[in-house]
Amino acid sequence: MRPLNPSAWNLFKPLSLGALALAACGPGAAEDDAGTTTTQGNDTTTSYTTTYSTFTTYSTLTTYSTYTTYSDYSDNWDDYYDPCNYCAPDEMCKDGECYVPDCEDSLDCRDGLACIDSICTQVPQALACGTWATLEIAIPALDDVLDMQFVDVDNDGAQELVMLTLAGVSVLDDDLSLTDSAWVEPGQFTQMIAMRVDEDEFVDLAFTEPESGTLRTMLGNGNGTFGNEFTEVLEAITGGFGLDLDLNGQDELVGLINGMPASIEGVGEAGVVVSLTPTEAHQHVHHGDNDGDGEQDLLLAGLASDMLAQSASWVLQQGGSWQPSGPAVGLNLDQPQQWGAFDLDGDGLDDAFSAAPSLGVVVMQSWSGGKLAAATVPETELAWILGAEFDGTNGEEVLLGTPVPRLVQRLNSDPLGCHYPLEGFPAGGERAVAGDFDGDGIDEVAVLVGGVVHLRVSDS
């Protein structure tokens, strides 16, 4: 509600009754005397002398103070406005008094406010800390790439860029050479997962098609090629990744089946679906070490029943069993969020992170030790999010697939304190992945734009 401004009401100071009577005669009101009577013979003549008095009527506006300071209503205008209308955006009002409420999570706050340090407050904009230069690595042209991942296929310490195409798999080495492995049996897959299927030392690949539930594996040969195709049809799995849950040296394929966390054991043989933990159906699943025990935990986010659900929760892997952790409750946003598990504060633990466009900005949220940090960047669209070690320091940075791609870096104790436009970075894109392509400890980033891969490295 717009604060009342009495000075805009064009109020006039009331005139006295006498002034009103005089004013009724016009600006030059006349004042007559009683007259003088003269008698001469039978004739009587009365003479009058008229004296004119000039009056000036002043229309004086009564000036009132204009209140622009929140909670300032000291002039006792209670009859004219509700003091609660003058509370600051991060204040609430009770019995005519403005106050900053305490909170346990953002559900205790009004829409658009975040519970930060136990106080409901507006989400700050991350500080613009300059620009971040990147360089393009020219790679051989390869069209119709469907998915990609950085994988150390030959155990040399550097991660090659493995790309899924319509024809099969292509591997880009750090000498920029391509090695192709074509399908033996034609197939159409949209997701590729690096995992250890057999007992040798080399990484293998699994391919899924969520619409059909078809699962195919190819075994790594250690030289950038893959073979020994095996195809089976199981239940459709989404968001898949490989984890060695039983510590036997072979990975299970973990993901969501009908929105529920599950694993496929025996991938590459006769796979068996195993439910991991009872929970509600979710839209997203990610993994990371959230409790510091060296085991990979699951981050479940976005309720399948509510596209705008603002909470996520960890399910901790503890000695072969799963222990649900408390939910991370965030802001109420008007767009679905993208989620990830990143170590943004450099403490060695992976924390939940989300981002979504809302009300003309992109809102970011991160939870470390149950504590919420939130910030915005001045963008209106978001295609992807990515965690990467992009500057060689402890902890990861977040890359945002906004119209002007940005890198978000911690500033002091704020994991979302700084943002940098990425110079030369391709705009848009469907997907991005990060990995140490040349083995120097700093990640390179590959962005997929219209089926074409752009490979970039930090130059800052």
From TrEMBL:
Signal peptide: 1-30
Keyword RNA-binding assigned: no
InterPro entries linked: Integrin_alpha_N (IPR028994)
Family matches, as PROSITE patterns: PROKAR_LIPOPROTEIN (PS51257)
Swiss-Prot/TrEMBL keywords: Signal
Protein name: FG-GAP repeat protein
Natural source organism: Enhygromyxa salina
